[in-house]
Amino acid sequence: MHFTTSTSVSGVTSRDFVHDGVPGVLWTPPGTATGLLLSAHGGGQHKRAPGITARAHACAQAGLAVVTLDAPGHGDRPRTPDDDHYAIEIRARITTGTDAGPLVAEYNALQAARAIPEWRSALDALLGLPEFTHLPGAGFWGVSMGSALGIPLTAAEPRVAAAVFGLLGAADHLTAAAASITVPVRFLLQWDDQLIARPAGLALFDALATPRKTLHANPGGHGDVPAHELADAVRWLADRARETTPAPR
Amino acid sequence: MHFTTSTSVSGVTSRDFVHDGVPGVLWTPPGTATGLLLSAHGGGQHKRAPGITARAHACAQAGLAVVTLDAPGHGDRPRTPDDDHYAIEIRARITTGTDAGPLVAEYNALQAARAIPEWRSALDALLGLPEFTHLPGAGFWGVSMGSALGIPLTAAEPRVAAAVFGLLGAADHLTAAAASITVPVRFLLQWDDQLIARPAGLALFDALATPRKTLHANPGGHGDVPAHELADAVRWLADRARETTPAPR
């Protein structure tokens, strides 16, 4: 993990890095981190998209370190012909009001296959840093394409101890992964999501095996998750981190 | 409003009263109340049922005064032949695994028609008490039969400023009332509710007109709302009361 620049805003330090060729950002709170959060961005976004940066600052203010990576074909990473093809086709279907769902699900599955090893490798490297040796694992926050990555990642990776998912509908490979998730999950659903059919979103929540899952549904479209819901997810993740991180000696 | 006994536990005072022949309890916090909560019990319960008492204490610790009434045919109130008929039939259907839904909905509608004038009259009397003259209105918390009362009450009563509903499914008179509710609503749904079909619960949430509504769904049956959800509802109601109550002079 090769750190490049470092800047501080309101006590929160953000460091750009490259790990195995993947660019990312690590935000750290003023003191010792009480937990580490893997924060995955959505489709078409990147590691410093406004929502990702705001979420990272809120989590760092609550004591968490936050890491994000550019998804394959996103941000500062090269786009393959496949990335271009899906981006153009998905945008065209959304613009014309055609159902983009199946194509998004296809692209999401491709993305997850590429990104999961990158996140696991980044987690290895981060937990090896002196500042994080006290942490047993990490939480995860990613909605939409972030959940398409996060659900199979959380199913495969025992060090992910709690997760915020949502804004995504059931698809075969996702429900199979969801059925083996046993850690606490907060699931966000937008009641009037123009990209995710309501029954598909409910079905994905239903598929999660964990008994500690809560669905929070709010009116509005895909991008309209209310601020109070985001603030509440930060508190929830900070509480889960406190449950799993041993008290400092 | 005729107060009879008064007891104090951990700074929370509870006073039994009778108002227009209806027995109730008023819990008040140690200092000036920051809000008033109308707390309606569920079917087969009463004004001092353990869940109602625990909820009242938690709300009072958060600064709210809480009032509850025995529902018609419940607690210390006489049962009509109709009350007995429905109680026996509903219990029999639940025991035999027959669908009790339509019968419960019928009884709930009857209950609401009887109880709404009682709650409005109690609200008149309470807001006239010297200790509550600073309050512009009240919040409402009632799930299951409590929501069957609370949804038409909130639709009809402009002084109800926020409400916790849930554990109830759509029925014609309820969805009509829900469609005229514009105050903030927290809606609790149990994902494996044995009494309320999941689509009916989701449909009732859907029918609420207010843009400030959030659905919280958790695994488990009708009686299994998790403790964290109840604690969160207390905080939410206390926050809503602070939004609507003028600061003390």
Structure explained in plain terms:
The structure is a homodimer of 249-residue chains. In chain A, 41% of the residues lie in helices and 23% in strands. Chain A has a nine-stranded mixed sheet, sandwiched between helices. Chain A is an alpha/beta fold and 249 residues long. In chain A, helix 5 (172-178) links the parallel strand 7 (160-166) and strand 8 (185-190). Chain A is globular, with a radius of gyration of 17 Å. Chain A has one domain (2-244): 3-Layer(aba) Sandwich (Rossmann fold), CATH 3.40.50. The model of chain A has no long low-confidence stretch (mean pLDDT 95). Chain A contains seven helices and nine strands. At the A-B interface, helix 6 and strand 9 of A face helix 6 and strand 9 of B. Strand 9 of chain A pairs antiparallel with strand 9 (213-218) of chain B.
List the SSEs and their pairings:
The structure is a homodimer of 249-residue chains.
Chain A: E1 2-9, E2 12-19, E3 22-28, E4 35-39, H1 50-61, E5 64-69, H2 81-96, H3 101-127, E6 138-141, H4 145-156, E7 160-166, H5 172-178, E8 185-190, H6 198-207, E9 213-218, H7 227-244
Parallel strand pairs in A: 4-5, 4-6, 6-7, 7-8, 8-9
Antiparallel strand pairs in A: 1-2, 2-3, 3-5
Helix pairs in contact in A: 3-4, 4-5, 5-6
